């Protein structure tokens, strides 16, 4: 019943920045932990970042640590992923995810969005 819709992807050059957005609907947003995953062609889906209910804790994959920032605006039912200094290896389909558990949202989230494509040229 939870619906997640990502937006903000596109084609950028290496070193550029993007801000992805994920709109949440169908349940009470403030009690859900949120996350971002990505999947490149021929590769497994991998965890990127997560944030807890009140933005007290954030989590990042080593591959994006220092370049990525996850945030949420509970008044807008939206979670964001700010990505800076993008690299060609960041090219992937990025998925928004949600779960009542901050632990589960990093591994087996209950809900997924449809994905938004990020392509980084060298």
Describe this structure in words.
- There is one protein chain.
- With 122 residues, the chain is an all-beta fold.
- The protein is 0% helix and 50% strand.
- The protein is built from no helices and 11 strands.
- It has strands at 3-7, 10-13, 18-25, 33-39, 46-51, 58-60, 68-73, 78-83, 92-99, 111-112, 116-121.
- Strands 2, 4, 5, 6, 9, 10 and 11 form a 7-stranded mixed beta sheet that branches. A 4-stranded antiparallel beta sheet has the order 1-3-8-7, with no helix packed on it.
- It is globular, with a radius of gyration of 13 Å.
- The termini are far apart.
- The model has no long low-confidence stretch (mean pLDDT 96).
Structural topology:
Blueprint (H helix, E strand, L loop, with lengths): L2 E5 L2 E4 L4 E8 L7 E7 L6 E6 L6 E3 L7 E6 L4 E6 L8 E8 L11 E2 L3 E6 L1
Parallel strand pairs: 2-11
Antiparallel strand pairs: 1-3, 3-8, 4-5, 4-9, 5-6, 7-8, 9-10, 9-11
């Amino acid at each position: 019943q939870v619906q997640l819709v990502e937006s903000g992807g596109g084609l950028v050059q290496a070193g550029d920045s993007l801000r992805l957005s994920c709109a949440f609907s169908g349940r009470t947003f403030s009690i859900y932990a949120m996350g971002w995953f990505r999947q490149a062609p021929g590769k497994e889906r991998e965890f990127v970042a997560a944030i807890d209910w009140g933005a007290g804790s954030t989590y990042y994959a080593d591959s994006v640590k220092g370049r990525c920032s996850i945030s949420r605006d509970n008044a807008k039912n939206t979670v964001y992923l700010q990505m800076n200094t993008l690299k060609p290896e960041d090219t992937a389909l990025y998925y928004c995810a949600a779960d009542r558990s901050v632990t589960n949202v990093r591994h087996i989230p209950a809900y997924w969005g449809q994905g938004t494509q990020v392509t980084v040229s060298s």
